[in-house]
Amino acid sequence: MEEITQYQDDILRLFSRYGLQMIQGIAFFWIGTKITKRITLIVNKQIKKKSTNHALIDFFTQLTSVSLTVIIFIGSIDMAGVETTSFIAMLGSAGLAVGLALQGSLANIAGGALLLTLRPFRKGEFIEVNGHLGTVIDVGLFATTIQTPKMRQVFLPNGSLAGGVIKNYSREGITRVDVPIGISYGADIKEARNVLLNVIMNDKRVLKDPEAPVVFVTNLGDSSVDLQLRAFVKIEDYWGFLFETLEECKIALDNNKIEIPFPQRVLHIEKGETETSDIGDLMADIA
Q: Gene3D superfamilies recorded for this chain (predicted)?
């Protein structure tokens, strides 16, 4: 009987000492799980507004849930009176080991998070990154997929995208087309400029804003006077306008008897200083 009484007294002492802390810890964990569910739901809705990639949505939703649950669990056992210093140190060591093992993958995931947050491009936009030009098809968990004008799919790691230079041609909706044209030194530059301007001014795809079409001299080359035609068009008209304008410019210059030169070399020979055999040798060397 005395042993039972002693046992009951021990239980009462333990409860009076740790009972309140345990109740606080349990209450904290219960309330924390409710808050975690609410925050996870909010995060899920916000990510869905910015991305339709289910893998990306599920990953960040689960990452939020697990991270908050771990924090709440550690806080709960600490409130219950359990020493958490060694437990936190163990979690830190495990996290460091996992981080080192998955360094490349984590960099891509972090890059995906930055792309999702900053949104330098969206699905369907035309971009240039890391030397690749194409339309964004998908922004995944580890990589972004673009489709090039040659209908090839290129998979780019998100880590390199987040740390690289991204050119977004679709954000403004328009782009400038630069068309190089060379004419002979004997041609009239003003006449050639008027001919080229007439070609593009009759094209309905050419925009007058933010800048009207212009043709100017860019270089005096070895065999030609280099002109450049500049005009703004909508992004979807870029390739068609570029190729068709090159053809139309060639036809217009031919119709106006303006020569488009090819590389050539002029040889001056002074009489009496070079024998015929020497001329033959010289021509052979040039060939």
A: 1.10.287.1260, 2.30.30.60, 3.30.70.100
Return the number of other C-beta atoms located less than 10 Å from residue 268's C-beta: 4
pLDDT in tens, 210-250: 888 999 999 998 888 999 999 999 988 888 999 999 999 99
Q: How many CA atoms lie within 13 A of 229 on its CB side?
A: 26
Chain-centre distance for alpha carbon 86: 43
Cα 285 from Cα 274, distance rounded (Å): 15
CA angle 12, 14, 17 (to 5 degrees): 105
Q: What's the rounded Cα separation, in Å, for the pair 113 and 126?
A: 20
* d(C-alpha 166, C-alpha 121), whole Å: 9
Please check whether residue 211 is in contact with residue 174, taking contact to mean a CB–CB distance below 8 angstroms. no
Whether 21 and 88 share a structural domain: yes
How deeply is 229 buried, as exposed, middle or buried, from its count of CB atoms within 10 A (0-12, 13-18, 19+)?
Answer: buried
92, 164: one domain: no
Q: Are residues 156 and 179 in the same domain?
A: no
Quote the distance between the C-alpha of residue 18 and its chain's center.
56
Cα–Cα distance for residue pair 211/223, rounded to 1 Å: 30
Q: Which two tokens stand for residue 217?
A: 């001299």
Tell me the per-residue pLDDT of 74-94, one tens digit each, with 9 for 90 and over. 778 777 666 666 666 666 766
Q: Report yes or no on whether pTM surpasses 0.85.
A: no
